[in-house]
Amino acid sequence: MLWEGLLCVAAALALMILHDWRAMPSYTKREKTAYGVLTGLGAILAILLVLDPQMPGPTQWMDEPLVNLLEKLTLLRSG
Question: In the chain, what are the helix, strand and coil shares in percent, each to the nearest 5?
Fold first, then answer.
């Protein structure tokens, strides 16, 4: 199951890059860099989710620190 998931992620990335390759020559260097970084981050997240499906998502990573910050701000404003 692990290899099939990783193969599906690789195939999806390859298809996405091949689809966008035709328009790449007209992109600026900044757009190409942004495309590469975002695609790479998406690939890393997809691979991590294939390896550990129970891993919390990015919104869950930020949930606790954000709640703590809002509680502190509320206490400062009210007291």
Answer: 85, 0, 15
Tokens of 29: 């260097």
pLDDT digit string, tens, across residues 29-77: 999 899 999 999 999 989 988 998 888 877 777 777 888 888 888 888 8
Statement: the pTM of the whole predicted model exceeds 0.85: no
Q: Which residues contact 33 (CB under 8 A, 6 or more apart)?
A: none
Angle between helices 29-51 and 2-21 (to 10 degrees): 170
Contacts of residue 35, Cβ cutoff 8 Å, sequence gap at least 6: 20, 27
Residue 50 to residue 43: CA distance in whole angstroms: 10
Q: E strand or H helix at 17, and its extent? A: helix 2-21
Distance CA 31, CA 49 (A): 27
